[in-house]
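For practice. Supply one:
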Amino acid sequence: MDNKNYQHFSFNELLNAQQNIGSETPPQEIADLQAVISAHPNNPANQTANKRTVPVKFLGKTDEFFSIWIVNLLLTIVTLGIYSAWATVRNNRYFYSNTEIDGHRLAYLADPIQILKGRIIGVLLFASYFLAASFSPIAAGIIMLVLVFAYPLLICMSLRFKMRMTAYRNVRFNFNGKYGRAFVVFILLPIMSIFTLYLALPWVMKKVDQFIYDNITFGDKKLSTSLETGEYFIAGLGAAFIGIALFVLASFGLGLSFSDLVPGESGIDFTLGYALFIVTYVAVILICSSFYAARIRNHIFNNSVIEDVSEFTSQLSVSQLIWLRSSNFVVIVASLGFAMPWVKIRSARLYASATQVTVLAGADNVLTKDSQSSSAIGEEVANAFDIDVAIG
C-alpha cells in the first residue's frame, strides 16, 4: 500500500495524523510524517528558530527632503493648490521609500489624480456647508447632522485608502472596518462618555484604537491586538495629573493669577501675564500629550502581531518625545515654518529608532489578497473637515 502524501496537510492535520498512528502504519509513512511535522513552518520549534528581530531604519536626509519640500511648496502656490495632490504623493513616497525593515522598504502607491479628485470634492463640500450656513442656519444644521452620520464612513474610507496605498515586499495592507461598528466607536461611545463626566474616555480611546488596528490586514494575514484598558486609564489620568500639577507649579513659580489675565490699569502687566499664560499652556500641552502618546504607542506596538508574520516592539521614552515636540515647536516658530523638513526628518528618525520588528517564520508565505480599487474621496473630505485618525 502506498504511503500517504503529507506535504499539503495543515499543521493541525499533521498533529491529528500523528495521534492516529497505529501498529499497522508502515514505518516509512511514520518517518515521512515526522519529517513533514519537523519541517512545517507552523511548528513552534521552527518559529522560534526562524525568529529574528530587526530594527526599523529611516534613511531620509534633511537636505534631500528640503529640495522636495520647497519645490512642492512653490508649485502648490503657483498652481493655486492644484499641485498639492502631487506634493502629497512625492512627500509620502520619500518617507515610505526611506523606511527600511529587514532589508526591504515600504512603498506608497497612490496616484496624484486620485488625491486631486478627492480633494476637489472635499473642498466643494466644505464650501457648500459654509454657503448654506450663511444663508440658512436650518440648512447648516441639516448638513451638520448628515456629517455626523457620515463621519464614521469618512474615517473608514480614509483608513482604507491609506492602508491600500501602503505596500511592503509587493504586498498591500488593507482596512476592513465596517460602518456599523465605526458608528458605535466614533459616535455613540464618545457621547456616552459625556454622561460619565468623561471618566470613561480612556476606555473609549482603547475601543477606538482596537477598532482601527484589529481591522488592518497585510495580504491575507490579519493584524490583532491585545490592548488593556488599565494602560489607557494610567496614560489618560497620568497626563491629566501632570497637566494640573504643572499649571499649579507654574502659577506659583511665575506669580500668575487670573487677575493678571484681565485688562487693568497696567497694560504691560496684562500683556506679560497673558504671554506667560500662553507659554505655560503650550508647554503643558506638549508635555501631557507626549506622555500619553509615548505610553499608548508603546502599548499598542508591544501588544500587536500580524499572524505568522511579525511582532512589534516600541521603546519610545516620554522624555525623548517631550524633547522632540518641544524643540520642533520652537524651531518651527523661530524659522517661520522653513524648518519643517528638518522637523519631519528628525521625527521620522526618532520613531523608527524606537521601533523593532520580530520577523516570524511565515513572513515569506504571505499571499497577496486582491483588493478593489480605493478612492481618496473619504480621506480628502475628512481632511477638509479636519477629521484625522493617526496610525502609529
In short: The chain has a mean pLDDT of 85. Residues 1-40 form one domain. The first strand starts at residue 52 and ends at 58.
